User: Which sequence fits this backbone?
């Protein structure tokens, strides 16, 4: 079974989608079969790898209409497949409520999968609602992108409390794969101060690799491609390749 | 009755809280009585103006335990009051479901207010769930912060569809006060391209005032103050003062 990694943080705009896409692509570049699951109704991860927009989507999987295998499509990037999402997924947030085992829906769907994936990355929406809980429950570990700014720091304890809740609900072995400092701008004291604060609080779960603010990361999705495909020499690409190697070392 | 402005966009991290806090403060600086309502369980707007963290909060208002007047506190900034929020507000998102008139809860609470506010700004969470619907239903107009990047552009049509839904649910006069371009970085083509695209699509509803990327805006909340209090000479302060004047012109 693949190593399932949920990329989560309820704070908005901290680099969840950018990290999910580019980490998945970085493992693809290392010729390991990888699946990117988009569990955000915004569908940014799907568009960010050039998805056509044609259903079925994760909504059909969570509502029991299709298996994950039937919904998965190839992305434009080697070794990287996509389980796409679009606005329909909002329906799952409400639809999931009426089912006693709703929290296991994604876990069961991924367990049935026989795709030979080494790793699965699940992009989460900016909330701690049912879609994120589904992703955490399906995960072996959580990657927490943390923007080096004040508001992002505020929300971390809430996220960690949610991880603990998922452990109590039936996944005691859910780990924290790492906290990733994102959008780091070494010209500002703010980034340095927040990074220092985070390392003081969280110690070794903070990844050594820091993702700098790099406009190529923001440009790549408009071409429907990971930054490794858009501009392999950019600082953004180098950071996510480094991060993938670091994660592979932490979770062989 | 005050002019109620919801600051909304389901895309995360586009500058909703930063715009709500600093627009409210800019009207306060013009000596007009202003109320900032935090309807995001992250509580960023509350912390961003130095709130003590002591309940009651908006949760108590939406669940009928307290009136808005009993919950409102003074902020540290002249003419600016706060109706605070914290994590408890997540309970309202689920609690609101069982009440047929749930969508009118915030509207009724603000209508009962007799605080003599000229304007009320409501900061929304990064979602189109019940808390945002409550805010839109209570609003006279919506301010849409739009980060000048690709993913932010993608979500606009969904937000406009939601505004239309609220009009059909009982607030036909809900207007769009303006789309505000935020985090604009004139050194990148991306900002210029997105800004051009937005003006082409939305024409005159796009505000003339552009909010540049300015680190002082990101530093101010860690001191619990609006940027006008933290650094009045900064580009961020100047932009929000200009935006407030432009809005006052659009909605006298
Ligand atoms: N390191 C970076 N440098 C520059 N821009 C970045 C970086 N990481 C992400 N971005 C850009 O910042 C914006 C926010 O990032 P992204 O959408 O990945 O965050 P998110 O946490 O997934 O947001 P949401 O909460 O809405 O899901 C996007 O426009 C993205 O292209
Ligand atoms: N113009 C700007 N220049 C620089 N930094 C900014 C600017 N506007 C906002 N920020 C910073 O960017 C981050 C995101 O902004 P903010 O939290 O206001 O967005 P939001 O839309 O309210 O996010 P959420 O979706 O989580 O509610 C914050 O750390 C904020 O301080
Ligand atoms: Mg995202
Ligand atoms: Mg906010």
Assistant:
């Amino acid at each position: 079974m693949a190593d399932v990694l949920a990329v989560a943080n309820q704070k908005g705009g901290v680099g969840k989608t950018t990290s999910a896409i580019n980490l998945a692509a970085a493992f693809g570049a290392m010729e390991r079969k990888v699946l990117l699951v988009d569990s955000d109704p915004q569908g940014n991860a799907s568009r960010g790898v050039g998805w056509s927009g044609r259903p079925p989507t994760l909504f059909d999987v969570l509502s029991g209409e299709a298996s994950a295998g039937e919904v998965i499509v190839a992305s434009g990037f080697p070794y990287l497949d996509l389980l796409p999402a679009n606005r329909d997924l909002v329906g799952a947030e409400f639809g999931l409520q009426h089912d006693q085992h709703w929290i296991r829906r994604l876990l069961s769907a991924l367990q049935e999968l026989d795709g030979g994936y080494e790793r699965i990355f699940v992009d989460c929406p900016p909330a701690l609602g049912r879609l994120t809980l589904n992703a955490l429950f399906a995960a072996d570990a959580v990657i927490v992108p943390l923007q080096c700014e004040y508001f992002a720091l505020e929300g971390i304890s809430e996220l960690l409390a949610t991880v603990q809740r998922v452990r109590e609900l039936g996944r005691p072995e859910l780990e924290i794969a790492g906290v990733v400092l994102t959008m780091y701008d070494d010209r500002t004291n703010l980034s340095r101060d927040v990074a220092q604060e985070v390392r003081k609080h969280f110690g070794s779960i903070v990844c050594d690799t820091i993702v700098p603010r790099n406009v190529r990361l923001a440009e790549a999705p408009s071409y429907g491609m990971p930054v490794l495909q858009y501009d392999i020499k950019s600082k953004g690409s180098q950071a996510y390749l480094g991060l993938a190697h670091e994660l592979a070392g932490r979770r062989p």
Chain B touches chain A through 35 residues (CB under 8 Å). The CA atoms of residues 9 and 156 of chain B lie 8 Å apart.
